[in-house]
Amino acid sequence: MNLVLTLALLLAVLVVFSAQAEEEEEENQWPYLIHLDSCEVNVDPSYGSGKCKTRKPKGEKVRKMTLTLDVRQEILGNVQVSMVAKLKNNGNWVKNYESEPKDFDSYYTQNQDLLDSIYKFGNLTTCPIQPGTYIIKEYLVDETKFPEKLECGEYMMELLIRFGTTDIAVIKVGAFVECQ
């Protein structure tokens, strides 16, 4: 009987350790962490205002971002979105990625997984954009929505939102990609 209990106990311990090892593997599968270091937003005053901040909650590894946009007037179609990402190389910012300006619906369609992972943190909407306050609260980056072979280092990303010929908003986010 003691042998059966000992074997059962040994089997239980092996199952627990194997489950913990699988959890650790799952947690460490992605090759990097993205730390949001800073953010700022500049909005054309005739369209609204905005603010952005990052903070590192106690006990967390990475910072979370909160973005607030107060929209004063309805924004119908013809909204263009473009993005530039720069990587710091030997103290200089080098353009790492640049998207051509696209209408918002096309931009959303091409980046739906990433944008949906951001939208779930707030009340952002697609076009037309009605007057009101839009918030992304405590956004935590989901690295799995980014390319697996992202180069590690310091980044500056700029998202430009344009309506016709007017730059409605420029959102800048500084981030550090840490290899694991």
Gist of the model:
By secondary structure, this protein is α+β, with helices and mostly antiparallel strands. It contains three helices and nine strands, in the order H-E-E-E-E-E-E-H-H-E-E-E. The protein has helices at residues 2-27, 104-110, 112-119, and strands spanning 32-43, 48-55, 64-71, 79-89, 92-98, 102-103, 132-139, 153-163, 166-179.
Characterise this structure.
This protein is an alpha+beta fold and 180 residues long. The chain has two domains: 29 residues; 149 residues, Ganglioside GM2 activator (Ganglioside M2 Activator Protein, Chain: A). Helices cover 23% and strands 45% of the residues. The strands form two sheets. Strands 1, 4, 5, 6, 8 and 9 form a six-stranded antiparallel sheet that branches. Strand 4 and strand 5 form a beta hairpin. The longest helix is centred in the first third of the chain and has 26 residues. It is globular. The termini are far apart.
Briefly, what CATH class of the largest domain? Mainly Beta
**What's the gyration radius in Å?**
22 Å
The count of helical stretches stands at: 3
Structural class of the helices, strands and pairings?
A: alpha+beta
Taking the alpha carbons of the first and last residues, their distance comes to 47 Å
* Main sheet overview: 6 strands, antiparallel
By CATH, the superfamily of the largest domain comes out as Ganglioside GM2 activator
Helix content: 10-25%
- SSE string, helix = H, strand = E? HEEEEEEHHEEE
What's the total count of β strands?
9
Q: Might you state the CATH topology name of the largest domain?
A: Ganglioside M2 Activator Protein, Chain: A
- What is the second-level CATH architecture of the largest domain? Distorted Sandwich
Q: Provide mean pLDDT, rounded.
A: 78
How many structural domains can be distinguished in the coordinates? Answer: 2
Q: Which assembly state applies to the chains in this document?
A: single chain
User: Which descriptor suits the 3D outline?
Assistant: globular
Share of β-strand residues:
over 45%
Uncertain segments are: 1-26
